[in-house]
Fold this sequence. Notes:
Blueprint: H1 5-21, E1 27-31, H2 52-57, H3 60-68, E2 73-76, H4 98-108, E3 114-116, H5 123-126, H6 131-141, H7 152-164, H8 170-187, H9 200-204, H10 207-220, E4 240-246, H11 262-272, E5 275-279, H12 286-293, E6 298-304, H13 318-329, E7 334-339
Parallel strand pairs: 1-2, 2-3, 4-5, 4-6, 6-7
Amino acid sequence: FSDDPEMVANWGAAFIRAAQDERQLATAKHFPGHGDTALDSHILLPTLDVPRERLEQIELPPFRAAVQRGVRAVMTAHICVPALDSNSNGGRPATFSPAIVDGILRKSFGFDGLIFSDALNMGAVAENYEAGEAAVLAIEAGCDIALYSADAPRTHAALCDAVTKGRITRERIDESARRMLNAKAWCGLQHERMVSLENVWSVVASPLHTSTARELFEHGVTLIRDPLKLLPLEQRHKRVAAIILKDAVPVWAHVLREPAGSRFSKAVQERWQARLVESSADSVDIEQVLESVRDCDVVLVAVCARVAAYKGSVALGHAHAEVLRALDQANIPTIATVFG
């Protein structure tokens, strides 16, 4: 929602209230705060190496507020936070830290709802821990649900073995089981377990919802800067080019219903019969792009850079950054629009 903790807390509370008013479990994540990390925990284990005072000012307040305002679930982060976990030796994920999960979230914040681990098949955990041991460590730390194990049968056996050997008490297992049953009862699953798929389109795609979504999208468009006063772009511009910078998203590409930037390029071509140039994130011929647009009055660049798991970075692709830099250095009037 923001980089301001109070705004995150307030918007978070509104989301929690809206979801839970409809008997949906809201989950605050990823505890104790995953925002300021440079690595993708789907792949590697990030470390948030900042003082405790900073964590108390920035990362922790939204979670404390969420607990105070009744959130019913919290998910842990696969990140190392040395300032909150003196016994971690700089390498233990928060998910496996009793000091963070049980100490801060349960005891200090007084949270008695469900605690989910983040997915245990993610690289930050799976690359360093055997599947069964990972689940045992998560439960020992205070999690109720060991989510998405890489090997469910082995995980079940490991948890049973940990109880048999006294590493985890039966009371501790019962405690989590009771929280899960309470959560299911709160959701009313004993009365109606399934959502009616027949009603989805009439509810989710209702005129009220689609108009609200459109209004939100329109308010969400933000002009960062326009030093050349190029906007609004008028019909009188005869020579307009559209450059579509397509991002390579390995994991989620299959769910996209149409090629990235296709609606943008169609709308631009309808208005100005624009020249169209497309480029992938992997490589780009800068000279060819410049040659294609050098005689244009203005160039519209659609930067289709999606944030996605397993991508490893939220930054603009190198090739795309080079295109924008080259257009700027060539003094070609450019309007860059960032999608995603």
